[in-house]
Structure prediction request, 442 residues.
Amino acid sequence: MVKVEFLGPIGKSPIEVDASTLAELAEILKKDAEVAKWLENSAVAVNDTLVESLEMKLNSGDRVSLLPPVCGG
Amino acid sequence: MVKVEFLGPIGKSPIEVDASTLAELAEILKKDAEVAKWLENSAVAVNDTLVESLEMKLNSGDRVSLLPPVCGG
Amino acid sequence: MVLIYKGPIDVDSLLSRWYGAEHNRNYGAMVTFVGTVREENGIEALSFDIYRPLLEKWFEEWKRKLEKEGALLAMAHSEGDVPVHTSSFACAIFSPKRRVALKMLEAFVEDFKANAPIWKYDVVEGKRIYAAERSTPMAGSGLLAKGK
Amino acid sequence: MVLIYKGPIDVDSLLSRWYGAEHNRNYGAMVTFVGTVREENGIEALSFDIYRPLLEKWFEEWKRKLEKEGALLAMAHSEGDVPVHTSSFACAIFSPKRRVALKMLEAFVEDFKANAPIWKYDVVEGKRIYAAERSTPMAGSGLLAKGK
Prediction:
């Protein structure tokens, strides 16, 4: 199982899902209306490292974070 | 008479000279060895306004300042 | 390490602390940036969420970049509510050379705005409203919207 | 008006004074630059001469330029001896917009170096030596070397 957390304004509690790649996770999240609208403009981190490829393998216990548009300062 | 003051590192006391234009003043200062070497890289102010033309008329009581290369900060 | 304040930054003591720690280490230039909450659109405050693990990584990368230029970077940010006319962000760069400090301050602050994992909310009548229009998708955003 | 210090600037109280006077006037960004005397070439201190009337004119022109952008400029400089690891120059820009503050800080500091009527001396074994090689002729220099 992979833990998915939704940062900042997404305002949703973490969920646990069964996915072995980011591409699989993407398909699962697209079906969640609350989350789907954030996918287009959110960055993705796996275990606190920003990632850029959907092919990335996920292992049980991995933590995936969705980071919506930012504005510090 | 015009008062000429020498700022910063020129380190010379002010002098009074008889000159009716900056061009005339330039000829006088070129004859002063102590001052001549500073003319090439000094800016000139008349009554605390920087000037750019040798044709400028000088009136009795005017104050001319020589400003050698600067380095603040 | 990024200094995180709960609420507004105490700017006087922060700048004094930074200057005090570094002025005798032979840096010729200190530049600082302080961001203060403006009164506009009827807000009472801004409020911030921070994702600390990634903020720390992002900051340490910038710190290393500046170290290569012989310069030192320090940063503080607020979490939670920051009332109008108080400050939520501060940073300082110490450098032997003034040009490095001036160039890097601008580059750092612009990248901070675009990529530091911090979320901003307007606080109006006690309610937090995400500042969506002023926010920027981080580099690499939209990955999970791709695919089939 | 430029604040002139006899000897080193008290940076803590100066920055605190500037921030304190302006943070509640709805400027979103404060940027500051502080110049500190580096220990190099065996100097004990730097020393400065200032020609105040022209410094004031030069500064007021910059102040007006920044006011057109909605920004506020403040500056302090030392006269006389400033020991190694103490500070001789400070400035601050307050602006509603961060980009104006960042751009203008760089432009102001560079023009300050090139055109503010201030002369610098190294102090070595109590003697003042004009820093000729690090100095820049002001705009328009050489006028009196022209002619016949």
Observations:
- The first helix of chain A runs from residue 22 to 30.
